[in-house]
Write a structure and sequence with these properties.
By secondary structure, the chain is of the alpha/beta class. It has helices spanning 35-41, 45-48, 64-74, 95-105, 114-118, 121-129, 145-154, 176-186, 200-203, 220-230, 250-259, 269-274, 292-302, 322-331, 339-347, and strands spanning 21-22, 58-59, 78-83, 88-94, 159-163, 170-175, 214-215, 234-238, 244-249, 285-286, 306-310, 316-321, 337-338. The chain is flat.
Length: 357
């Protein structure tokens, strides 16, 4: 189905590819390889919508600062934007926007970020869209979860609005995490593929070279720069020995608004982590010898977006994310490998890896 398209979504600029996807040859004909692909094709987006969930919608005339405070207060990471003049949804306000504003306009702790304090969403949108050709990406409730995963990975977005084509209302914001949770709950009703018992080092699912990290002595602004330039959603924080001591995510950045610390981005990562509003359990890690099933269970139960792959000395060796898992379990068996994702990994020196399920 054609996704509902309007004016651009608030995401980073994306390069136009000549081809939408990169087809790969799937080795062998083991029917297990297609288990999760077929599962996602046989369920629609409506199936994955919870019976009760919170949805926050912002009018584009709302002040940017108030909008970000509202995200924190409601515990959500993104909100659809409603344009009352056009009488339709025109985009999404996400944590990425908060990071972009801070990174673009921050000068020093002594200088107030006027653009954050005074601008309305529509003002920021006008400025941002000068550099963006994106469109609002959404999906209908009767589209398959396979289509949703393809849209999320192809467009390199983390939130996909499910919009009722009849009413134009947003029903839910579908995420990688929600889809994996749905699979984890209802996938138990289907035969368990044998490849789940393979070790993560065997299947090669994840990112293993040129991992984006940040030193605990670096500033928060340094971390924002990595978020913007490398387009990652979380950074392992490492000490001088390269051992991981924490994980700093985009969601931690929005908490700067709750703590009103966004005017002091010169603070070190060590200070930022220590000042977190809520207590955080240690870094969720995985090891090369652990099975794919163990890793999927850990991510699903902890409701996180990624695990940090470490060696026996706790030195960072890779990242296994929800995107990596959904790509390998669902899209690759269909002969689809999203080209822009592949290109970005090549640019970062990560090389290509084949999923040998």
């Amino acid at each position: 189905m054609e996704p509902f398209a309007e004016v651009p979504l608030f995401e980073m600029n994306q390069e136009e590819d000549e081809e939408d996807v990169l087809s790969v040859q799937i080795r062998g004909s083991d029917p297990d390889s297609f288990t999760y692909m077929n599962f996602m094709k046989s369920h629609c987006c409506y199936d994955a919508i919870p019976t009760s969930s919170k949805l926050v919608i912002f009018d584009t005339t709302l002040q940017v600062k108030k909008a970000f405070f509202a995200l924190v207060a409601n515990g959500v990471r993104a909100a659809p934007l409603w344009d009352n003049k056009l009488k339709c949804f025109v985009g999404m306000l996400t944590i990425t926007d908060f990071i972009n504003i801070l990174h673009r306009y921050y000068k020093s702790p002594l200088v107030q970020i006027y653009e954050l304090e005074e601008h309305k969403i529509e003002t920021w949108r006008e400025i941002y869209l000068e550099y963006s050709v994106n469109r609002l990406i959404s999906i209908t409730p009767d589209a398959s979860l396979f289509d949703a995963i393809y849209s999320l990975l192809k467009n390199k977005i983390h939130r996909l609005p499910v919009i009722d084509p009849a009413s134009g209302n947003v029903l839910h914001i579908l995420t990688h995490k929600r889809i994996l949770k749905f699979l984890h709950i209802f996938g138990s009703m289907i035969p368990k593929p044998r490849f789940l018992q393979k070790q993560i080092c065997e299947v090669g699912i994840g990112t293993f070279k040129e991992i984006a990290t940040v030193q605990e002595s670096a500033s928060v602004y340094d971390a924002l720069t990595v978020f913007v330039e490398r387009r990652v959603s979380a950074l392992p924080v490492v000490n001088e020995q390269g051992k991981v001591v924490a994980l700093y995510s985009r969601f931690d950045v929005i908490n700067l608004a709750a703590q009103k610390n966004y005017n002091n981005l010169n603070m070190t990562m060590r200070e930022a982590i220590a000042s977190r509003a809520c207590w955080m359990e240690g870094v969720l890690k995985c090891y090369p010898h652990e099975t794919l099933e163990t890793i999927i269970d850990r991510i699903a139960k902890a409701e996180v977006h990624r695990l940090v792959l470490v060696d026996s000395e706790d030195v960072v060796r890779g990242i296994v994310s929800l995107s990596d898992l959904l790509q390998a379990l669902v899209l690759t068996p269909a002969g689809i490998y999203e080209r822009s994702c592949f290109k970005d990994r090549r640019k970062q020196g990560e090389g290509s890896f084949k999923t040998r399920l």
